[in-house]
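Async update (no meeting this week)

Hi team, since we skipped the sync, here's where things stand on the single-chain job. The sequence we agreed to prioritize is pasted below, unchanged from the tracker. I ran it this morning and attached the output directly underneath so nobody has to dig for it. Comments welcome in thread, and please keep replies under the output.
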Amino acid sequence: MGAIEIRRVYEAEDAKGAVFLVDRLWPRGVRKSDLKLDGWPRDVAPSDDLRRWFGHRPERFTEFAERYRRELDDHPDAVRPLLEAARQGPVTLLYSARDSDHNQAVVLRDHLREQLGR
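Output:
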């Protein structure tokens, strides 16, 4: 089982293992040809409604994380490719948010680690 790292998409040059963009929208200022991705599973990202509600407001992060985990539990097929990649080796999850502590990649990484530990 590989390690799961998270990294801003703008700092992805030395990402390890299988690399996945976990944002629903393509990041601003990044050309598709500049990213070496193994996948862009849009369905693993928070729903548009949840993303808009959260608005990257740190005071909403705890509730955002709970809601997002419910979405992930309701869509196991979206998570499956990431779990399979993590069983094979290291995985890097790329996100574009400025806040490195309060974003969906943090929640997704922890969710994947829990799933792998079962």
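Quick observations from my side:
The beta strands are 4-8, 18-21, 91-95.
Residues 4-117 form one domain.
Reply here if anything looks off.
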